[in-house]
Automatic annotation (TrEMBL):
One of its GO terms (molecular function) is oxygen binding. It comes from the Bacteria. PANTHER family: TWO-ON-TWO HEMOGLOBIN-3. The gene is glbN. Its cofactor is heme. CDD domains: TrHb2_Mt-trHbO-like_O (cd14771). It comes from Amycolatopsis taiwanensis. This is Oxygen-binding heme protein. The keyword Plastid does not apply. Keywords: Heme, Iron, Metal-binding, Transport.
Length: 126
C-alpha cells in the first residue's frame, strides 16, 4: 500500500529514532549546543524531540499526550538561541539527516521544515 503520510513514507518510527539518536550524538560533542542542555542525561531530551517530530509528520500523538501543546517558542525561551546556536543545531541535524539517506524529495521536505523551525526559535540577537 502507498504510504499515508510523510511519517510512513520515510519509514515510520525507526527512521525518526535513528535521526534523532544521531543528532544527539552530535549534540553531546558540540561545544555550542551541549552547555545549553540542562540535564546531564540527554536521553529524555532525545525522546521528546523524537516524539515531537513523529507527531508533527503524521505519526502517533504521544508527544502531546505526555507534554501537551508543543509551544516550541515558549519551551525554548529559557535558552539563549542566536544565529550561532541555530547554525550549530542545523549542522548537527544535517549530519543526522544525511545518514538516514532519505529519497531526495523527502529529504528536501524535512530539511525545509527544520530550517524554518530553527529560524523561528531564535530568541536572542546579542
Ligand atoms: C527542547 C535547544 C531547535 C524541538 C530543547 C532544549 C534545548 C533545545 C536546550 C531542552 C532540552 C529538553 O529538555 O528537551 C534548541 C536549539 C535549537 C533548537 C539551540 C536551535 C535553533 C529546535 C527545533 C525543533 C526543536 C528546530 C523542532 C523542529 C524541541 C523539542 C523540545 C526541545 C520538541 C522538547 C520540548 C518539551 O517538550 O519540553 N531544545 N532547540 N528544537 N526542542 Fe529544541
Amino acid at each position: 500500500p502507498e504510504p499515508e503520510n510523510f511519517f510512513e513514507a520515510v519509514g515510520g518510527e525507526p527512521t525518526f529514532r535513528k535521526i534523532v539518536a544521531r543528532f544527539y550524538a552530535e549534540v553531546a560533542e558540540d561545544e555550542v549546543l551541549r552547555p545549553l542542555y540542562p540535564e546531564p542525561d540527554l536521553g529524555p531530551a532525545e525522546e521528546r524531540l523524537r516524539l515531537f517530530l513523529m507527531q508533527y509528520w503524521g505519526g502517533p500523538h504521544t508527544y502531546s499526550e505526555r507534554r501537551g501543546h508543543p509551544r516550541l517558542r515558549m519551551r525554548h525561551a529559557p535558552f539563549k538561541i542566536g544565529p550561532i546556536e541555530r547554525d550549530a543545531w542545523l549542522r548537527a541535524m544535517r549530519v543526522a539527516v544525511d545518514e538516514a539517506n532519505l529519497p531526495e524529495p523527502l529529504d528536501k521536505q524535512l530539511w525545509s521544515y527544520l530550517e524554518m523551525a530553527a529560524q523561528t526559535l531564535i530568541n536572542s540577537w546579542t
